[in-house]
Fold this sequence. Notes:
Blueprint: E1 2-8, H1 14-24, E2 28-33, E3 38-43, H2 46-54, H3 56-59, E4 65-72, E5 83-86, H4 106-112, H5 156-163, E6 184-188, E7 191-192, H6 197-206, E8 211-214, E9 219-223, H7 228-237, E10 246-249, H8 252-258, E11 259-260, H9 263-270, E12 276-281, E13 297-301, H10 306-313, E14 323-328, H11 340-347, E15 353-357, E16 369-371, E17 379-382, E18 392-393, E19 402-404, E20 414-417, E21 420-423, H12 433-449, E22 456-460, E23 477-481, H13 483-495, E24 499-510, E25 516-525, E26 529-535, E27 538-539, H14 545-548, H15 550-558, H16 573-583, E28 589-590, H17 593-603, H18 615-629, H19 637-643, E29 646-649, E30 652-658, H20 661-670, H21 676-702, E31 706-710, H22 717-729, E32 733-736, H23 747-753
Parallel strand pairs: 2-5, 8-15, 10-13, 12-16, 19-22, 22-23, 24-31, 26-30, 31-32
Antiparallel strand pairs: 1-3, 1-4, 2-3, 6-7, 6-15, 8-9, 9-14, 10-14, 11-12, 12-13, 16-17, 18-21, 19-20, 20-21, 24-25, 25-26, 27-28, 29-30
Helix pairs in contact: 6-10, 13-23, 15-17, 17-18, 18-21, 19-21, 20-21, 21-22
Amino acid sequence: MRFTFRGTVQGVGFRPALYRLAVSLGLSGFVQNRRSFVVAEVQGDDDAVALFAARLDASIPAAARIGDMRSETVAELPSESSFMIAPSAPDLFSFPPIPPDLAPCTACTAELLDSENRRFLYPFITCTQCGPRYSIVERTPFDRDNTSMRPFHQCAACQAEYADPGDRRFHSQTNSCAACGPRLACHAAGRALPGDPLAAAINGLRSGMVVALQGIGGFHLAVDPRSSAGVQRLRGEKARERKPFALMVRDLEEARTLCVLSEGEERALAGPEAPIVIARRRADTPRWLDAVSDTDTLGIMLPSTPLHILLFRHPGVDIDYGHLVMTSGNRANEPIITAPEEAVVKLGGAAGIFLFHDRRIVFRADDSIVRVPRSSPPYLLRRSRGYVPRLINLARPVKATVLALGGDLKNAPALAKGSELHLSAYNGDLDDAETMRQFDAQVRQLLELYAVTPDIVVRDMHPHYRSSQWTAPPGVRGMTVQHHHAHALAVMAEHGLEEALALSFDGTGYGADGTIWGGEFLHATRGAFSRLGSFTPFPLPGGDAATLRPSRIAFALLDGHDGRDIPGISRNDGPVLRAMIESGLNCPITSSLGRIFDAAAAILGLVETTSYEGEGPIRLEGKALREAADGGSLPAHKEALALLPFMGGPGDERLFLIDPRPLLSLLLREKSSGDIHALSFLFHACIAHASAEGARRMRAATGVTAIALCGGVFQNLLLRDLLVPLLINDGFGVFLSVQAPTGDGGLAVGQAWFEES
């Protein structure tokens, strides 16, 4: 019997597990890596062969994922008398499955801290179930000689483990120890420090210094948050005035002292991906954390490498901290740094100590970020380490090899072929030359890794996006997809939908009419869409500058309606803004729900000037989450729609518009005497009710009941928790992104799913 397996089946101990299962049943045959799948042939007693198939699910390692399994009968080989792991062989099917980088497993963690174990305190301990994978691969299949582990030849002890079928390091391509593997070095002021490099770095952290340390997919900058000088130095060097920093915590117990965690959030934290989880902050957290995050949430993660574990649990050093600021090692707006020599040049202004290793990083991978709602599965805000390069399996194949370039914000290109899609790691915002160079390198590296030339390159419709200027190979066909249609298609691709309704809500996207869209109610197919509704368009005085001064957005929405006493608008500002709006000078028109969130945050006094993307909505949601936790109740449907009334579109009664002005006026009137937490919750609840009403109107017009929730606004956990039950109770099939980010980080998935009518 021949079995063919596709999915995450290489580099995760899959072949050794099948070997042990086959041998335990007395079967002969082989298991072999091919370029994009694993094949196993077994022969022997019919009952034993049947047991092999029946016990597969229980026998494979926890890190493995079988996406597809097929079996067929093949001719027996009378001369075959044993079972073996055959040398890897290439093939030409679709994309080779490369495993993601995984956090240390419990067995390796125990050995790391066991003074009797030969890998005691070895910061690169790994086995078939954990360690670097994607970040070190140079070509496929995933074998040691095809990775940056190639220079590290296994010593006799490691080689014995590698060859022993009973050892969990049997065929572990990253196997090493202190005698034969990567090594650490600690530098300060351009000189190597003597003694234990880890101890030197920990002592630096204890003294309030910023430490640059090389992880799996790039550098981190770490500092003890109790050091106000260290945190401020980090903010100054990264030009990060108020944006929250992530925290790495020693263990789950420490995480519970900082955040109110659900079971789902704890599972996400402790999973092999070890992402940053955005969770509600406890009211009694230490005051020094105000400098880390001045919002009602914290981004926390567990150690993702043995090196990080030892920062908290090194037995040879007195460690008095349980959490550290742990942020990406990069300059403002640039990609995460991977090479030690570049880190010294670019991070020297922030870091006083550098902790290096000599295992080369091939693919950069920043920390992934997730949120865990009550009403739907965990979702990704940033998809990178731990998740990339897991392939997204498409329910229906694409008709050509498609390279999708994504957008300019949260850029992540994608490559689709057959029924599989590779979504690249988070690249960042393409707003400077260095990030553009990384974007170009990332795309070319992706094509080289899979040895393909695309048939089609898909871009965003925006005429000035930098990503859209990428030069495709000669003869490759180009296509463009409207931004919000691509958001809808991203959800449809994950769930195999050919047609759906979509609530496509975000901050900015180039609309089909040349205005800025962002609050769209769409009827979408793979090749086309129709716009059935939106939030009422309004001007943005100063264009992009309005997002930095969200009170201007509030003024544009409320002037002439109820625009008195908007926080941040002086007596002199009003006439100037009014003149801009009346003349239309530098006042683009938008229907963006993201900008309406900005206006609400400004009206409630939560933000005056914006120092990072989404600051106002993040603060608004944080206040509302506190009210929700205290039992805030939803307004009645009629009450909500009175504050967000529907009206017909000018010249097209089939297009409905939702007017946000009555709701914003209420916030303005009530803010001085009302509860900001309750008003923030009311805003979210009204948006949820209006969205559900818009969905009902679209269903009445089209008969379609499948609805996709997409776009950056749906990063908002509370909006999801309020809206999804309303839609389900009303008979809709609700679909959301699970494997890709819901915002622009997943845009390329939708672009790749586009198919011309």
